[in-house]
Amino acid sequence: MTITLSTTTRGAAVLAMAALLVTGCNRGADNGKKTIALVPKAMDSEFWLAVRKGAQKAVEGRDDVTLSVLAPDREINVDQQVSILEDQIQRGARALVVAPAGSAQVVPVLQNAIGRGIPVVLVDADAPLPGKSSYAGTDNRAGGSLAAKHVIERVGTGKIALISGVPGNQSQDDRAAGFLETIKTAPGLQVAAQQPANSERSLGLTVMENILTAHPDIKAVFATNDQMALGAVEAIQSRKPQAGIIVVGFDATGEAVQAIIDGRMSASVAQRPFEMGRRSVEAALALIDGRTVEPRIDTGTELVTAANAASYKK
Hints:
By secondary structure, the chain is an alpha/beta fold. The chain has 2 domains: 2-137 and 273-298, Response regulator (Rossmann fold); 140-270, 3-Layer(aba) Sandwich (Rossmann fold), CATH 3.40.50.2300. The protein contains 11 helices and 13 strands. It has helices at 11-30, 46-58, 78-90, 103-115, 140-155, 170-183, 201-214, 226-239, 254-262, 273-288, 309-313, and strands spanning 2-7, 34-39, 65-71, 95-98, 120-123, 134-137, 158-164, 189-196, 220-223, 246-251, 267-270, 296-298, 302-305. The chain is elongated. The model is unreliable at 7-30 (pLDDT under 50).
């Protein structure tokens, strides 16, 4: 097993680093190694680091395999992800495991890979991709619905807000859609604001500040990932610390779980990023070995609240 890792900050650096890493992969290919490219949306959070750890676990003991982990520096930099994928296809990756940062831009390059006989496994974010081999991840609509049910239970009536990810990011869009569908069943709740914060903590803080300015009577906010939720918490603590605003996130990262224990967040929808990485790369290994895989691998969800946060953290 060989593992290569990369994150970048500029498009040119993406290509340069990708070329460097894949040069190593080609040397491995000359020795009979098979290259699996894991291309997440970014590598800038606890979530993606856990995905990478799971992927590394999957290839332990496989001396015939090279795992290359390459990612844009930010989830919003979809063009960088496209460049990485194009480069991996040209250099002969045997399988792609991809979390599409933007379906509209990424799907065409993945269709090209499938047309060349390269199996594609989607992880974390599903996408409308004919011919994909599998999807491993959360039922994001169901997760968004879990968040909405918690808000309904805790708030009942009044104004609420939704902070979403990069528009076109399928997993984030699905979470938002599941949340809004379930909120509609509670006529006493009004979605007074809905804004994107691109999965970034600093932007989540800014967006929440804007929401509080426009709607000072807001009672709850659902952010479709924990980084944005934690940014929203900072804004609330600065602007309206005594307002008792409910904050719900998604991912149940270590910091978010601690915020729940501390009473600064109300809940977060837990995913299993380690299992996503492990099971998606296991699927890729099976495909390059000529075996079949399940078309959908559900890694599950769980709502983490004050009632179970301490045990979940352990």
